[in-house]
Write a structure and sequence with these properties.
The chain is mostly helical. The protein is 80% helix and 0% strand.
Length: 271
């Protein structure tokens, strides 16, 4: 009976993975299509990968997306570390619970609600300073940092809870300055959580569409918005090629992130 249940569960799991990743597989296959058809495979070719790099608008959108994702990851990681350390050292339990609840709101709130709320906030702030074209790179950056920050905090906080703070106190007692003790003693122990939060911030910013759609302006366009604008006409296979490259890059980052986490856990077990 157990073998039969295990066999059925494996089939069920395989069907789920097929349902999730079959569309990506089809997209990757048609990115190597020799014709412009998006439903008939005419043969293997790298033509659309070459065509992709000649599309100036797509390359500009890709550049904007990468710059935005890198800035979001850096700012969210720095703010997330500061917030995590501050919350961890706080002795007021009510304040800590309230802040953790506020941290979870951007994660639990629907993205369309967050996007509309951020857009109304930016437009209202622009009206206060008599500025009409307020939406652009900076509004996108603020919005992306807002929804990426909780992921950094929730990855760093568990690492701080696992760390023995008596080691930090011993380093301070032995004459080490607090900031040096933090970077030499605490920082290496929470580094895996920091890397995880940073990579998650980068990937979330890289493929975000809904919040970006409501908070971007005509002067700054990200790749997901550019691809969406093309669906109103016709998506060419060069967009399949670009999406395939993005998927491969994100997959590589996730593999490296899991590798770093496993390595850190092994070091912790050895210690």
């Amino acid at each position: 009976m157990k073998k039969k249940t295990s066999f059925i569960s494996k089939i069920y799991l395989a069907l789920i993975f097929i349902f999730l990743y079959a569309p990506i597989g089809v997209m990757m296959m048609f990115s190597f299509n020799s014709t412009s058809s998006t439903y008939t495979f005419g043969g293997f070719s790298t033509h659309w990968y070459k065509e992709m790099f000649t599309d100036a608008a797509a390359m500009k959108s890709l550049q904007n997306t990468v710059v935005l994702a890198v800035c979001t990851a850096i700012i969210a990681t720095v703010l997330g570390i500061l917030a995590s350390v501050g919350l961890f050292n706080s002795r007021n339990k009510l304040y800590k619970r309230a802040m953790m609840t506020a941290t979870n709101i951007p994660m639990m709130n629907p993205e369309i609600v967050t996007g509309i709320a951020m857009m109304l906030l930016f437009v209202f702030a622009g009206a206060l300073v008599n500025k009409s074209n307020v939406l652009g790179f900076w509004t996108l950056l603020i919005a992306h940092v807002t929804f990426a920050l909780p992921y950094v905090i929730l990855n760093v906080m568990p690492k701080l809870r696992q760390f023995d703070m008596h080691i930090y106190e011993a380093a301070v007692d032995l004459g080490c300055k607090p900031y040096k003790a933090f970077f030499k003693v605490v920082f290496p122990e929470i580094l895996s959580g920091i890397i995880t939060g940073c990579v998650m911030s980068f990937t979330l910013s890289l493929d975000d569409f809904i919040i970006s759609y409501f908070t971007n302006g005509p002067s700054f366009q990200t790749l997901p918005i550019y691809i969406f604008s093309m669906t109103k006409k016709r998506v060419k296979p060069d967009m399949y090629a670009l999406s395939t490259l993005m998927f491969v890059v994100i997959l590589a980052l996730l593999v490296l992130m899991n590798f770093a986490q496993n390595r850190a856990e092994r070091k912790g077990e050895q210690k």
